[in-house]
Structures are given as C-alpha cells and as structure tokens.
Specification:
The complex is a heterodimer of chains A (262) and B (296). By secondary structure, chain A is mainly alpha-helical. Classes of the chains: A mainly alpha (262), B alpha/beta (296). At the A-B interface, α1 and α7 of A face α2 of B.
Chain lengths: 262, 296
C-alpha cells in the first residue's frame, strides 16, 4: 500500500497531531487524577446542593465511583468535547477547506482518481482520530493504575471504542458535507450543529421523560447513561458504524460528480 | 494530423449563469495554441473542463484521444497543468510540494525539479506560504513541465513573472514544442504569447469569436504609430495611404493606425522633417472594438 495522499497528510501534520494527542491525554489524565482526592472529600454533600436535573444533564449522577467519574467527567464531557472539536475541525479542512483555499487543485489535477483522493483523505481523518483516542486510553488507564483506582479495563476499552466511533461519526459527517459542497463553513456548521443537537437530546431527554431523545441521538448511542457502563451495546455500536458508513457514501456520491474548484 | 484537444459545442452553466455558450476548439498534436480573451471570458472554465475539475453542462471535450475524462484520471499523467492562480498552503517548502506532486505521478519528473528551479532561479527550500506571487508562479511552472508531459495546459503562465522570467517560461514552451509536445496556453494579453503561438482562438463572453494564425491576427490588430515633425503637416497628405487609417493630426504630431507594411507611410512622411517616431502594438481589446464596429 503506497497511499501517497494519506502519508503526505500525516507527515505534514506531525506537529499538530502530536500536540492534540498530548493535549487530550494530558487533560484527561489531569481530570482522572483528581478523583481520589475528590473521593476523600465528602462529595455527596456537595452534590446534594445541585438540582437533580442538573446532575442528570451533566451525567454526574454516578460520579461517586471511579468508573462512573471517568465516564461522566472525562469520557462524557472533556475528552468527548475535545475529540469532537478536533475531528470536526480537521474534517472540515480535509477537502472543503483545502479546496476553498486552492491547495487541492494540483492534487485534483494529478493522475489520481477522485475516489482515491476521497478515501485517502477520509482515512487521514480516521487515522488521526485513532491516534487521539489511543493516547486518551493510555493516559486514563495509566493514571487509574498508578493511583490504584477501581476501573475495569473492559469498560474503559468499551468507552474508548464508543468515543472513537462517535468522534469518527461527527468527523465523517463534516468531511462528507465538505466533500459534497466544497464549503468549509457549511461542513463545520453541519458537523458542529448536529453534535450540539445530539448532545442536548441525550442530556435533556431523560430529565423530561422523553427517553426517545437519547435513542435517536448518536451521542446517546455512545453515552447511554454513562459511557463507562458495563453493559456494552452491540446495537448502539453498529448504529455509530452505520452512521459513518452512510455519511461516507453520501459524501462520495456527490463528490464524484460535482464541479470542483468553483 | 490527430488532435490533442477537441472541444465541441461545450456549454457550462454555473447555476443560472451560462459561462460557456457552445465553445468549439481543435488543437492539433504538436502545435502551440494560444487561448486569448479578457478576464472572465471563460478561459479558465474551458481549461478546468479539460482537466475534469468541471463537468460540462452539454457538449464534450476530448483530450489526447480520450473522450470520457471522468473515467480516465490516469490520462492526466500525460498533461502538465499550470493553474491561473496557484496556492498550496502550509508551511512546507516548495521542494516538499514538488516532490509530493511527483509522488502522485509515480515519481515522474523528480529528477527535473532541481534543474528547472535553477533555470527559473527559484529557491526550493523556502516555505511556499512565504513566497511572492512570482515565486509561487515559478513553482507552478516547475510542476507543469517537470514530467515532460505530452500536453501542456497553461492558464496565464506568464502572469506575475517579470519580463526576464516570462522569456524563460516562453523558452520552456518552445523547447517542449520542439520535442513534440502540444501546448494550450491562455492569456488575456496577445502580446505575451504571440511569439510562441502558431494559432490562437479568441474567446469573449463564453464564445469563440475567432480562430486565426497569430501573424494574421497581428496584421489585423495593427499598431498605433505616432510621428512628430519639425513643422506643421497637412492631414490630407496621409489620408488614404495604404495600410493607414484613423489619421489625426494635432499641430506637428500625426497619429494613425497602421496595418501591414509601413512603407507608404514612411515615404509620405519623408517629404517632411521627421523628428520623432513611436509605434505600439494595439491591444486585443482594441481589436474587439474593431469587431464591434464592423458587427454594428
């Protein structure tokens, strides 16, 4: 496999990728390492002060265990937000952004097919997302081991897989919209807008007794009640995969036939 | 003789705006063909159809014998394309960009990056982003020529280059043509490419208005001549001379449009004392104005 386009993107973006991996791993390790200290303070008293709806929206209802804490504070919030910011921002640039600023013109007029350009650029998104979640897993697991926290590795792997898929899904949607329209703003708006709506559906649904809201939201497929819960859902995992696959194909159908560099 | 480019009744719409209204072109293998027209006339649109960036609304384009351009991306390994406005972005050096483009062509042309850069005095180790417009244009020229393509499609190749480098660029086109390559070269200024082009097509508002030998076109466009005399001259002495039109006399200065040989004008002028002489090629825009008038 030679994949010149993929190789080129990864090698030319070594530094930003490394910075993102370090940032995501670092912030997540920091959040994780706070848990034993929080556990010693009597959190329950403090948390009682918040209205239960707030706790539910923020996913803090089972913040009392190490696993629950990592699920809500790290995988459910900070790492989730950072990964989505990265995936959506990166995906918006991969075709639409580079087409808009003209940087894609000579690649598009080289003897490489549109199919190759589309697939290798999508692969670049997934490779980078993979590096980020691998770094996240290593950091979180490392800290939990070092501090003797009770975090089942299987649950952490399940949450990592889910986060990878949900980050990849919103990234792929952004990428596909960018490839279909050639407009970065449209791509970013769609990706970020859907992510926000998805998060709100999943967060607010249960508090107003509308559980279907979480059921239709990709964020709900990932988080359910807590990304770290031990009943791994095959259906939700497949839904995330299918979502990416559909976005990928729809983006391709348009990219294949539209006018480029207009 | 077979054709390198055949465009038949090509129509291209952008939404409700029709950019091309049925363009016809035929460029023979081995010729240097100029594609002339003012900005916004449809030059780049036509070129982008040839490279399969744009898909025709109707009509079709055939390049190097291939009709279904979308199905044959590999065809582009035989084409050297210089975009009208080149951007590559990033902090990468010109060399890294050029090596990447060679990589996309299975390495073809890698060995010509250095010698071409040297000829154009291009510093390969500076980041592309920081290059001046002229230096960016040089990077574009290198990548268009480096794999010695059969067909060069150059969109405004001389724009942004200083006169010396324009010459180098034109020499590169001549050399490629001498080796049997075909060149399709656009410009909004006839003068910039007339020394290399054999034939030119003129496009205006999405229509080819003329396909002609450069020499014939140049003859028709003519020159502005200005003669200054030691004393006042009568206009009647110059009216109706062969090849002379639009004569005006202001005191000691005579202005006219000259097409073809200046012999008659010079002989008439010799009857007086000539103290100054200037001639300037008329622009394509002026040629268009002639056309308007004859159409009206």
């Amino acid at each position: 496999m030679s994949a010149p386009i993929l190789r080129r993107i990864l090698s030319s973006r070594k530094r930003p990728i490394a910075l993102w991996v370090l940032a995501l791993a670092g912030v997540s390790a920091m959040y994780t390492s706070v848990f034993p200290w929080m556990e010693k303070m009597d959190l329950d008293d403090m948390l009682q002060a918040f209205p239960p709806e707030f706790m539910e929206i923020m996913g803090y209802d089972d913040i009392g265990t190490a696993s629950g804490y990592i699920g809500s504070a790290v995988y459910g919030l900070i790492a989730f937000a950072l990964l989505l910011v990265f995936a959506i921002g990166n995906a918006g640039r991969l075709i639409a952004g580079q087409e808009e600023d003209g940087a894609l013109e000579l690649e598009l007029t080289s003897p490489v097919s549109r199919r190759t350009i589309y697939t290798e650029r999508a692969a670049a998104l997934w490779c980078q997302t993979t590096l980020l979640v691998v770094g996240l897993f290593v950091a979180t697991f490392g800290v939990s081991l070092a501090l003797g926290m009770d975090v089942p590795v299987v649950d952490l792997l399940g949450a990592t897989l889910g986060l990878w898929l949900v980050g990849g899904l919103f990234g792929t949607i952004t990428f596909a919209v960018g490839a279909a329209t050639g407009r970065r703003v449209v791509a970013l708006g769609t990706g970020a807008g859907l992510a926000v709506v998805g998060w709100m559906l999943n967060a607010i649904g249960p508090t107003i007794d509308m559980d279907w809201m979480g059921t239709v939201s990709p964020v709900g497929w990932y988080m359910a009640e807590n990304p770290m819960n031990s009943d791994f859902s095959v259906v939700n995992t497949l839904l995330l995969v299918a979502g990416s696959a559909i976005a990928f194909v729809l983006g391709w159908v348009r990219f294949r036939s539209r006018d480029l560099m207009t | 003789m077979s054709a390198a480019i055949v465009v038949e009744n090509l129509v291209k719409d952008y939404g409700s705006f029709r950019a091309l209204h049925g363009v016809d072109l035929r460029v023979e293998v081995g010729e240097v063909f100029g594609f002339i027209g003012p900005n916004g006339a449809g030059k780049s649109t036509t070129i982008r159809v040839l490279l399969d960036l744009l898909r025709p609304t109707s009509g079709h384009a055939e390049v190097l014998g291939t009709r279904d351009l979308a199905a044959h991306p590999e065809l582009r390994s035989r084409i050297g394309y210089l975009p009208g406005e080149l951007n590559m972005g990033g902090k990468q050096t010109a060399r890294a960009h050029l090596e990447y483009l060679a990589d996309l062509r299975d390495g073809a042309g890698t060995d010509r990056i250095e010698p071409l850069a040297e000829r154009l005095s291009l510093d390969l180790d500076r980041p592309f982003r920081g290059l001046s417009k002229g230096n960016k244009q040089k990077v574009g020229v290198v990548q268009a020529f480096m794999h010695t393509p059969e067909l060069l499609i150059l969109d405004e190749p001389t724009s942004g280059l200083d006169p010396l480098l324009q010459q180098v660029c034109l020499t590169l086109i001549k050399e490629a043509a001498a080796d049997g390559a075909t060149a399709f070269v656009s410009s909004h200024i006839l003068g910039e490419i007339e020394v290399v082009a054999g034939r030119v097509a003129i496009i205006r508002e999405g229509r080819i208005v003329e396909t002609e030998n450069v020499a014939e076109l140049r003859h028709r466009a003519g020159q502005h001549v200005e003669l200054t005399f030691a004393g006042d001259v009568p206009r009647e002495a110059f009216d109706g001379l062969e090849g002379i039109s639009e004569v005006t006399v202001q005191g000691r200065t005579l202005r006219a449009v000259l097409r073809g040989s200046p012999d008659a004008l010079l002989k008439a002028a010799a009857a007086h004392t000539v103290v100054g002489w200037a001639a300037q090629d008329r622009t394509l825009e002026e040629l268009f104005m002639d056309q308007y008038r004859s159409d009206a």
